[in-house]
Each structure stands twice: as structure tokens, then as C-alpha cells.
Amino acid sequence: MLREAPSTRRLSKVRWWAALVVGSAAVLLALACGERLPPDDAPPPDGGTSSDAQLGDGALVTDGGFCTPDDSTLFCTDFERAPVETGWTKPIVTGDGTIDLDDASFVSPTNAFLSSASTTTGIATLFRSAPVVPRSFELDFDFRMEPGSESIARFLTLRVADTAYVRLSSLMSDAAQTHGIYVKTSVAGVDSDSLATTLPPLVWAHCNITVRPTEDGGGAA
Amino acid sequence: MSIRITGMDVPHTAALPRVDVAPEIELGVDKGGLPAGRVSVRFDDVRMRELR
Fold it and tell me: How far apart are the C-alpha atoms of A112 and A82, rounded to whole Å?
């Protein structure tokens, strides 16, 4: 697998987002401007030293400059520190699942979290519980489907209430290895499952999940 | 409460009860009970932030 130059990654990401038809123009513009990618030569926010422990309990895990100290951050990691589960509550690995840091491609230099599994019992996840119960919060992350993915799997579960969770899944949809990305919400036993987008392999995508009271502008289903 | 997911072709929203637990995230490939077949996903730059 070839390492992508930062400028190439940014360009491919801009193209990807520019091609999307998204209901929220503000979000689209923010992403197209590369807001999620720090400057290639930006120094770490603390001058090069690790910036975790600012919030305690490993809330910030960074050596690459992504996780700028901020008192609103509940958890942040750019996967720059080994082992891969650093800062997470626990890894969950079963069957033939594998988790690792990998530097073949990344958003913030120089590592990313690579997760793989094949068997029906394969799990290769990292689990983290937030330190507080926030009134409103958002989760941001970048992901991409890797070559050779040929099947279906969940790849994110976010529990937001005692009886509510959000889940993202991927399903390879054609011979070109385009993947359907599905969003499932489950609230009090009522499930909603829909195709959110399609994504070819080797293209980084960004996902933002915002959970907030409707009166704060969260909207309704 | 509501949830909104952006960054997808089809923004997804859903009505939710209030957040009554510390949010929990499980990130990575989970085949549990699904048909066999390799899936590999790469992740970077995960941030959970409280909104005020």
C-alpha cells in the first residue's frame, strides 16, 4: 500500500466532499476547505511534547498535534502513541480480529488505527466511555475502507442513552469494492436503518455525529 | 433530543431521549454474527466534544 502525500490526501478529500450532495451546505463547505486536516508543517500545539493529562483520565492522546487541549473535549486521539489502545478504556478483540497502529495512510501524521476481521466471530474494536454525562455532545472521526474488504461489518457503535444507540456499518456493494455505508439508530427498541452514502476504498471520509436537545437546534426526525 | 449525522450523502436525523448515560463509543470492525468475509477499516483523529 502506498503512502499518500499530505497534499494528495487533502486534494482527494476535497474532491470527495465536493462530489457529495449534502443537505447542510455549511458542513460541506467547512470540510471542503480542509478544516479537518491540520497544516502539514504545523507544530504540535504544546511545542512538541505530549498534551494528554490536560483533562485527566487520558482524555487527550496525541503526539501529532490533532488534539489541541480544550476544556470541552471529552476524548480525543490521533493514534500516534503505541499501543493502539492507549487512551481507550479497553480493546475488544475476538476471533481473527486484529487491531494495530499503521502508517501506510493517515489523516494526521503519522499513524492511524487499522482494524480488520473476517470470521463471523471476529471483533477488532476499541471501547471508550466518556468521563461525564454531557447535555449535548458531538463525535468526529475520519475513516476509510481498506482494499480487500469484501463483506459486511459494523464499524462504529455509539451509545447515547440507556435505550438508544447509533451504529454505522459497511457493506461491499459491487465488484469495484464500493461500500455502502449504513446508519442505524435504535431508540427504545425502535430501529431505523438507511443507506447514508457509498464510499470507494482508499478514500478518507469524515463523519460528525451531533447529539443535542432539539431546542438547541438539533432538529427532529 | 435529536441526533444528526453529517458527512454523508444523506444526513441522518433521529429523535432521541435525553442523554442519560456517559456516551460510549466502540470503534472498529465488528463482525459479530454477520456473514464471514474480510472487512478492514482505517480510522484517524477521533474527537468527542461536549457542546455548550
Answer: 11
Q: Which of A112, A135, A152 faces B42 most closely, judged by CB atoms?
A: A112
Instruction: Please indicate whether, in this complex, the C-beta atoms of B11 and A129 are within 8 angstroms of each other.
Output: no
| Amino acid sitting at position A184 | K
**Which residues are registered as beta bridge partners of A127?**
A90, B26
CA A3 – CA A25 distance, rounded (Å): 31
Q: Which amino acid is at A192?
A: S
pLDDT tens series, chain A, 221 aa: 334 444 444 434 433 333 332 222 222 212 221 223 333 333 333 322 233 333 445 566 666 678 887 889 999 999 999 999 999 999 999 999 999 999 999 999 999 999 999 999 999 999 999 999 998 999 999 999 998 888 999 999 999 888 889 999 999 877 677 888 898 988 888 898 888 888 888 989 888 888 876 655 444 33
| Cross-chain Cβ contact A125/B41 below 8 Å | no
Contacts with A, B 15-34, CB within 8 Å: 15-34
> Which residue in A has a C-alpha nearest to residue B34's C-alpha?
A120
Cβ(A17)–Cβ(A25) under 8 Å?
Answer: no
Burial of B11 (0-12, 13-18, 19+ CB in 10 A): middle
> Which DSSP helix (H) or strand (E) runs through A25?
helix A25-32
ipTM of the complex: 0.90
